[in-house]
Write a structure and sequence with these properties.
heterotrimer; A alpha+beta; B mainly alpha; C mainly alpha; A: alpha+beta; Rossmann fold; OB fold (Dihydrolipoamide Acetyltransferase, E2P); six-stranded mixed beta sheet; five-stranded antiparallel beta sheet; 20 strands; elongated; B: mainly alpha; MetI-like fold; 13 helices; about 70% helix; about 5% strand
Chain lengths: ~350, ~325, ~280
């Protein structure tokens, strides 16, 4: 087990800079998730930690040792790939034991480790099978087994669940979490799925266009997103953004109606972008008038699309409503759940 | 490569001193592995292709008679002789007819067979195997049997006679001799192109045909507007290979016609062989080699250019 | 173009294919049957599609007139060496061109590809001179070394490169994480997975070497060192006329074993060739 440090890490492909200097310190035993839209550089960052990409600038360290010029094999890491990368010409046991075999482990030792890993992952009855005879979820488990067999200092996961169907993804997600709780090894996990990030992570690094947007625990990111990008990326359905004017603590929509009163906690007067999560818009007797455009019942919740001062907004309601298209509702939001962002920089204003 | 070299330069610029004291970077170690992997082939190509190519050019500037043991620099004399060589027009004509005929016949027959083999029929692999079988029959053996069949009193004329046709002396009449060498070569090798075309045909997504059927497009038009464009990359590549191959045909000519009757089947390679190894004019033979190289390189370049125009689709 | 066909159409297609088969199959049949006909029957009229009488003495003559067994061995061992050598060196080069980044790779690859443009005939004169200097004329060295390292190997390298490019790169990355170096990745991961491409290369290379004709007649001059293609043309009488039935018997002996191997393994054969990366 070890901590991982990234210090002003940069990557460029030719003249194109794809990672512009990333600083993250991963604590020993932590589960860190790198999340962001595709092309944000999260996989490249992970591959630099693995040693599969060279580091163009800065330092990558594992367990206090700078590893920039070390081969992957000398970094004591294991990696689970998106499409599993199982060796098609070897059976499950061989796949899992291959690295130990290559590092010169004795036969009994390898068999013992493989049996241990197979037992943890429920693969014991599949050891003689070849990858093509396995289902997607089983392949996923073998890929993880191949990683844990070696008992490395750090586990790296590169979008390991994105090739599975929705149902299996949820199952495997819990298994990975359970695995971490059992092994307590440092894990760095890349995904574009913010729900995976929220459910798995001790801490999340949100990346966008080669930069770190925010680092924090899942609930920190949800409760106090540092900027508009993080606010829009974390949370599902996505946050509503409405242009507002703040005057004397009151948050006013374009048509002058009041959405919330922040009182003393309000930022200086002026124009802002106001972010409100759909689940935080409450219906009441008074508030801003919203015209119902669409009602989508989902069973447990109901999603309502409304027009609020000429802007489209979504509500996620726990209670069923009887409103129809064209009806008017009054919506308000509790002051603590109002996120104000600077119009130009997108930075948090309150 | 620009990416690699720029990348390389960033952390360990070539200007950095005392690089040797440090361990090699990952990328440098990998590059060394790369050079070691290609070394045997690169040395081989240098020794057996590049050096000989240079030597051929050097020889072509000399008058060199092996029997008389003379090797004198004559500058462009061989090339001047080449232009005035009375046999050259005939040789080029024979080469052109042979290559054009072979490519046209080979490509169209390969396509026809591939389309037939792409049908849903029971036992189709048996047909595929049989059509392909001449490819694995020894070239000289195949040529000898055909030579035997094409004798004046051979099998083919024998069959023709049973239905009352007096067959020609195939290999001793200029036109039929040329047709014969083309046909023998095509039946020997058409299986290769057939299999490549078949793979390409089977690579066309079936949904395209289903969509076309739903749109009411007739089968022939489907073939012209969907199949042909989609297999055109394969067709171009096989065409280049077939043309370059046709310019190298030697054994069939040497065994069947020895370039005759007259010079009607003396293709460039055979003429080169005669000049260099039968008459021992190594200098002039080398000049003919250069001509052959220029023709092959020119044709390949031309087709590579045409690709942009005629290949409708590429991965 | 695969649609269900009516019975009438099917019959027509079978008929067409049977007719088209004649020039592909009949010559081989004629070669085998004529080789066992008495000399008096081989030009008989009307031609005997099926032999009326048999005479197997031609087969012993094949071995009496020339050291045919020796020549058979020559062709066989040369083709085997060439095939093994090409598989080794072309797969290495193809792997490096597909997977390893090193300065100059593109230029070197272009230079290697030049070999595709250079027919053996172009360089035969200087090659003869080079091997002559080394005292290797009338040995098998030119027939072994040139195909393994020279122009004929370029096609194999190209095929291997195309295959390795298509191989998922994650497999090798997983192997690197598992602790393998370049050569071990090539040897333990890439090569075992390259079987289809390797078998295509093996087939092409074997047939190329087995069929070689110009090179043997340029380089080899003593019958004990002849290869089969060269030997086949030597069954002539004192006047240079072909001794047809003996020649056909020798041709049969040359062609039949390869043909039988092919028919037994035709699936791997044909499909291997179809997957050579020539799909464009």
């Amino acid at each position: 087990m070890a901590e991982v440090g990234l210090h002003s890490v940069k990557k460029s492909f030719g003249k194109v800079d794809v990672i512009h200097g990333v600083d993250v310190d991963v604590a020993d035993g932590e589960f860190l998730v790198l999340v962001g839209p595709s092309g944000c550089g999260k996989s490249t960052l992970l591959r630099m930690i693995a040693g599969l990409e060279t580091v163009s600038g800065g330092e990558v360290s594992i367990g206090g040792r700078v590893v920039n010029e070390l081969e992957p094999k000398d970094r004591d890491i294991a990696m689970v790939f998106q499409n599993y990368a199982l060796y098609p010409h070897m059976n499950v046991a061989k796949n899992m034991g291959f690295s130990l075999e290559h590092r010169g482990g004795s036969k009994s030792e390898i068999a013992e480790r493989v049996a241990w890993a197979a037992d943890i992952l429920g693969l014991s009855h599949l050891l003689e099978r070849f990858p093509k005879q396995l289902s997607g979820g089983q392949r996923q488990r073998v890929a993880m087994g191949r990683a844990i067999v070696r008992n490395p200092q750090v586990f790296l996961f590169d979008e390991p669940l994105s090739n599975l169907d929705a149902k299996l993804r949820v199952v495997m997600r819990s298994e990975i979490k359970a695995l971490h709780q059992k092994l307590k090894t440092t894990m760095i996990y890349v995904t574009h799925d913010q729900i995976e990030a929220m459910t798995l992570a001790d801490r999340i690094v949100v990346m966008h266009a080669g930069k770190v947007e925010q680092i924090g625990s899942p609930l920190e990111l949800y409760d106090r997103p540092a900027n508009r990008f993080v606010a829009g990326f974390i949370g599902s359905p996505a946050m509503n953004f409405l242009p507002v004017n703040v005057r004397g603590g009151r948050v006013l929509l374009a048509d002058g109606s009041e959405l919330a009163d922040l009182g003393a906690a309000a930022p200086p007067d002026g124009d802002y972008v106001c972010g409100i999560r759909p689940e935080h818009l409450d219906i009441g007797a008074n508030g801003a008038a919203a015209r119902v455009e669409m009602v989508e019942p989902m069973g447990a919740d109901t999603q309502v699309t409304v027009s609020l001062a000429g802007q489209k907004a979504h509500l996620l309601l726990r209670d069923r409503i009887t409103s129809n298209q064209g009806d008017t509702l009054f919506v308000a939001v509790r002051p603590a759940r109002v996120h104000l962002f600077d119009i130009r920089s997108g930075k948090r204003g309150n | 490569m620009t990416a690699a070299s720029t990348d390389d330069a960033a952390p360990h610029g070539p200007g950095q001193p005392s690089r040797k004291r440090f361990a090699l970077s990952m990328r440098q170690r990998d590059a060394i592995a790369g050079y070691l992997f290609i070394a045997p082939q690169l040395i081989g190509i240098t020794l057996f292709v590049l050096v000989p190519l240079g030597l051929v050019f050097w020889y072509s500037l000399h008058e060199w008679n092996v029997l008389a043991n003379t090797f004198t620099f004559t500058g462009t004399a061989n090339y001047q002789y080449l232009l005035s060589d009375p046999a050259l027009p005939e040789t080029l004509m024979a080469t052109g007819i042979f290559s054009a005929g072979l490519v046209a016949f080979n490509m169209s027959l390969a396509l026809l067979l591939a389309v037939l083999l792409d049908q849903k029929l029971r036992g189709i692999t048996v047909f595929r195997t049989l059509f392909f079988s001449p490819v694995v029959v020894s070239l000289v053996a195949w040529t000898i049997v055909w030579g035997f069949l094409l004798q004046k009193n051979g099998g083919i004329n024998g069959m023709l006679q049973t239905v009352g046709i007096e067959g020609p002396n195939w290999l001793r009449t200029p036109t039929t001799a040329m047709i014969s060498v083309i046909v023998v070569q095509v039946f020997k090798n058409v299986g290769l192109n057939m299999v490549l075309f078949l793979a390409a045909l089977q690579g066309v997504p079936r949904e395209l045909y289903e969509a076309a059927r739903v749109d009411g497009i007739p089968v022939f038009k489907q073939f012209r507007r969907i199949t042909l464009p989609l297999i055109s990359p394969t067709m171009l590549l096989t065409m280049i290979i077939t043309i370059v191959g046709s310019l190298q045909v030697f054994a069939q000519i040497a065994i069947l016609t020895q370039g005759g009757p007259g010079m009607s089947t003396t293709v460039l390679v055979y003429y080169l062989y005669q000049q260099a190894f039968q008459f021992h004019y190594f200098g002039y033979g080398s000049t003919l080699s250069i001509l052959l190289f220029v023709i092959v390189a020119g044709l390949t370049f031309l087709q590579w250019q045409l690709r942009r125009r005629f290949v409708f689709y590429e991965n | 173009m695969r649609t269900e066909l009516s019975t009438g159409k099917k019959t027509a297609l079978y008929g067409l294919m049977c007719v088209l088969l004649i020039p592909f199959v009949f010559p081989t049949w004629w070669m085998v049957t004529s080789s066992v006909k008495p000399i008096s029957d081989i030009f008989a009229f009307p031609p005997d599609i099926i032999p009326r009488a048999f005479d197997f003495s031609t087969y012993s003559k094949v071995f009496e007139l020339q050291p045919f067994a020796r020549q058979y061995w020559n062709s066989g061992y040369i083709a085997a060496l060439v095939t093994l050598g090409t598989m080794t060196f072309s797969s290495m080069a193809g792997y490096a061109f597909a997977r390893i980044r090193f300065p100059g790779a593109n230029i070197i690859f272009m230079i290697v590809l030049l070999g595709l443009l250079i027919p053996a005939e172009v360089t035969i004169v200087p090659l003869f001179q080079m091997f002559n200097r080394l005292g290797m004329v009338n040995t098998h060295w030119p027939l072994i070394l040139v195909p393994i390292f020279g122009a004929p190997s370029v096609f194999a390298t190209f095929v291997m490169r195309q295959f390795f490019i298509a191989l998922p790169v994650e497999l090798e990355e997983a192997a690197r994480v598992d602790g393998l170096g370049r050569f071990t990745i090539y040897r333990k991961i890439a090569l075992p997975l390259a079987r289809p491409a390797l078998s295509a290369v093996a087939i092409f290379t074997f047939l190329h070497s087995w069929n070689l004709y110009l090179e043997p007649i340029v380089f080899i001059s003593t019958p004990e060192k002849f290869t089969l293609p060269q030997a086949l043309t030597q069954y002539t009488d004192a006047y240079g006329g072909a001794m047809w039935n003996i020649q056909l018997a020798a041709a049969t002996l040359t062609a039949l074993p390869v043909l039988i191997v092919f028919i037994v393994a035709q699936k791997q054969f044909v499909e291997g060739l179809a997957h050579t990366g020539l799909k464009g």
